[in-house]
């Protein structure tokens, strides 16, 4: 398969925002195994102990390969970092709820329609986790 010319554009952004890690899957992103691995590595770099929760947002027309979906499911069987998925529309909500019900991630996972609700839940999850470690 020929290599694409020009610089590779990352299909996601991740950053620290207070006590929460933020992950945005960018518009028209194609998510494959390499991207899933990059996301997991970056989250581990930002929070090596896995104590900080993650708020995930998905922009329009994000596409994930079947192989990447399988890798994500395997990664969800381990770890206990809480994840809130911010669904901006009904198809995103359906997709995220299906993921939660069908794949049953080992970590706390909830779908929200509003950022404030998601942040409130995530900070509560962080407090429970920090308290349980002390």
What does this structure look like?
With about 130 residues, this protein is of the alpha/beta class. The protein has one domain (about 10-134). Helices cover about 45% and strands about 20% of the residues. The chain contains four helices and seven strands. It has helices spanning about 35-45, 65-75, 90-105, 115-134, and strands at about 10-15, 20-25, 30, 55-60, 65, 85, 110. A five-stranded mixed sheet has the order 1-2-4-6-7, with helices on both faces. The protein has a two-stranded parallel sheet with strand order 3-5. Helix 1 packs parallel to helix 2. The longest helix is centred in the C-terminal third of the chain and has 19 residues, at about 115-134. It is globular, with a radius of gyration of 15 Å. The model has no long low-confidence stretch (mean pLDDT about 85).
Strand order of the largest sheet: 1-2-4-6-7
What's the alpha carbon Rg, rounded to whole Å? 15 Å
The figure for the number of domains is 1
Helix content: 40-55%
Low-confidence stretches: none
Instruction: Round the mean pLDDT to the nearest integer and report it.
Output: 85
Order of helical and strand elements: EEEHEEHEHEH
Shape: globular
Q: Strand fraction band?
A: 15-25%
User: How would you characterize the largest beta sheet?
Assistant: 5 strands, mixed
- By helix and strand content, what is the structural category? alpha/beta
The rounded distance between the terminal residues' Cα atoms is: 51 Å
Number of strands: 7
* Total number of helices: 4
């Amino acid at each position: 398969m020929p290599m694409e010319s020009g610089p590779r554009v990352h299909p996601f952004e991740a950053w620290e925002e207070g006590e929460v890690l933020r992950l945005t899957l960018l518009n028209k992103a194609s998510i494959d195994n390499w991207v899933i691995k990059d996301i997991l590595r970056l989250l581990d770099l930002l929070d090596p102990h896995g104590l900080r929760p993650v708020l995930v947002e998905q922009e329009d027309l994000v596409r994930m390969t079947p192989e990447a979906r399988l890798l994500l499911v395997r990664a969800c069987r381990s770890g206990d970092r809480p994840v809130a998925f911010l669904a901006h529309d009904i198809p995103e909500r359906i997709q995220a709820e299906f993921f939660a019900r069908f794949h049953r991630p080992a970590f706390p996972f909830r779908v929200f329609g509003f950022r404030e609700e998601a942040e409130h839940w995530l900070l509560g999850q962080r407090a429970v986790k920090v308290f349980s470690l002390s």
